[in-house]
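Exercise 7. Given the components listed, write out the predicted structure of the assembled complex. Treat all entries as one system.
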Amino acid sequence: MDRKVQRRVPTAYLPSVHWESIASDGAARTGVLRTGHGAVRTPAFMPVGTLATVKGLEPRDLRELEVEMLLANAYHLTLRPGEETVRALGGLHAFMGWDGPILTDSGGFQVFSLASQRRIDEDGVTFRSHIDGTELRFTPERVMEIEAALGADVVMAFDDCAPYPCSEGDAAAAAERTACWAERSKAAMETIAAREPWPWPQRLYGIVQGSVVPRLRRESARRITSLGFDGHAIGGLSVGEPKELMLETLDVTVAELPADRPRYLMGVGFPEDVVAAILRGVDLFDCVAPTRHGRTGAAFTREGRVNVENARFTTDDAPIDQECGCRVCRTWSRAYIRHLFRSREMLGPRLLSYHNVAFLVDLVAEAREAIERGEAGPWAARWSQRYLAAAEEVPCA
Amino acid sequence: MDRKVQRRVPTAYLPSVHWESIASDGAARTGVLRTGHGAVRTPAFMPVGTLATVKGLEPRDLRELEVEMLLANAYHLTLRPGEETVRALGGLHAFMGWDGPILTDSGGFQVFSLASQRRIDEDGVTFRSHIDGTELRFTPERVMEIEAALGADVVMAFDDCAPYPCSEGDAAAAAERTACWAERSKAAMETIAAREPWPWPQRLYGIVQGSVVPRLRRESARRITSLGFDGHAIGGLSVGEPKELMLETLDVTVAELPADRPRYLMGVGFPEDVVAAILRGVDLFDCVAPTRHGRTGAAFTREGRVNVENARFTTDDAPIDQECGCRVCRTWSRAYIRHLFRSREMLGPRLLSYHNVAFLVDLVAEAREAIERGEAGPWAARWSQRYLAAAEEVPCA
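Answer.
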């Protein structure tokens, strides 16, 4: 078994403090998240490895990029290959060959965005798989079984993610259900963890809902934070609402979250949104944008997004981003990457995904430095101004 | 410019002896090919990087796999991105970030297999691009211009590759044309190289044709070898003829090729064929099989080809090939790679292409060792017996 690097996990490392603050500047803060698979400097960006692979990238690439934590999806993994298969193969870390920290999302968002013929009741959700139409049922207890079998370092409670827009009544009902399910998730996880523990702790985070209604967000935050989770997530944002409304809702919500636990803004990862949320005190981010954009030829650069298939790059010997130090920018020209995309060569999506993840990782690293210098505000203003001023319209999936 | 590793090429390295023999065992031999971008131990397997990328793999991967030489295609590269674009970006090596030896095929085979509305005359071929139908014309002189602009270390003369089956008359006409075009290719290349030299030599190889007709093969070999090429290729095989006929034709042809120049069997790369051809004195091979099979889920293993999507691998924690030491086999299980293919994740084709290239590289390395021990025959018999005995039927593109 020792051919697998990822099997070398600490077996008795149970850090008592999950997250510690290092520095703060206004609401923005830096810290360190400790897990059984290593530490994560926050603010941190987690690339999305939905099906136990960050599309097109290997764990070695992610290490090289100084990615410190990944996200995977309980919903997708229970469908393929099934959580018991993953457990039998040593859990997610061993299965995918990544020995760093992993967070699994509970599937609340996916059930509401991907599954069909959804019927919700107070106990859970019945739905059909987006792959083959098989009928499945998720309850908080069932989802905790799945996440326990996968063995991630941080697992999310099962939530009801209201769409945008929705009526205040629907938003209130979803927030109420989310609170009940959070309590049941916590109770279930405690039972399961005691029965079949991994050699590392699985930290459970609660999710705040409430759509864009300040009163509901405050109520949801108070109920969720009263339950004693290891961290708190802000769900139900970046689902189509205007940016200002997202930031206002974020302000209202973060104000209710305790300062001594990590705060995770789910699904947010456009660079400008990450900068804005870091200023507001968010510690963790995830988003498919770097890899999804990377697959379609959209590159993040310090001067905005560019489409690498643009004809002006035909003989351009410069790297994708002149200020980026990633291996792709050190090695290949825009002209070459354009050629790969024009020729539909699979190396193109890989190289651009690599660069885009580097871009997000660099962004949070710069933010941490700015916070620690006490210059978060000015840094964020300069960064965003430059990024947004020059942005070109890019078709993104 | 020094951010590009590949720019560091020797500027005054002009090895006077292109290929030197090291050892021989019967007809089989080992040697070393010297180029301005480094040495290549022969017998060698060249992965195919048609469009200046070995599909799914980076130059770093290929180095790590101890690949020593790549093949790229003049036909494809003149269509996309165009040889002048490649030249403007520093040539193929700089363009694709590979600082090792490269061989370009002349497009003879591609014009006859991919292009449409082909009209052949004694001077050249007029055809339509398989991409957009543009009318193009290849003559020996035009193809040498393309290959000179690309800047590979070894370039192939322009040939007329007869299909299989074909009449003896057609085979004779194609062989005759190939001989005329070989002479014109050589004259053209000498003129071009004198006019616009790269800092490294471009060695020119002639191609022997003649279908499966022994008399034609012998005549073609005599005419081609009389022209003073740096190396000799055997074209027009592995185009649909039965294996025995391929090997008989190979025997007839190799007997006519001088022992002091490298011999290249074009387009052959199925493991069992590589073993058989090495025994007959072939030094260089190329084939899309490792990467094409890798993309479709077919894995080369020492016990034959296997389909990684096979249900028996669902929870199989073993590597693709138990005896393979490549990074993929050291890191991931069959179960994980099966999951990637079942989920249509792009990492699957990448990892399996990597392993399959490792398999061919290991195969030629084993062959070299066997030849140097004087055990080529017994080694080949053992190797083939094991590989072919256990092979399962695998769907391959």
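Discussion: Chain A touches chain B at residues 3-5, 51-53, 55-59, 80-81, 85, 88-90, 95-97, 314-315, 317, 319, 330-333, 335-336, 338-340, 342-343, 345-347, 349-351 (CB under 8 Å). The longest strand of chain A covers residues 28-35.
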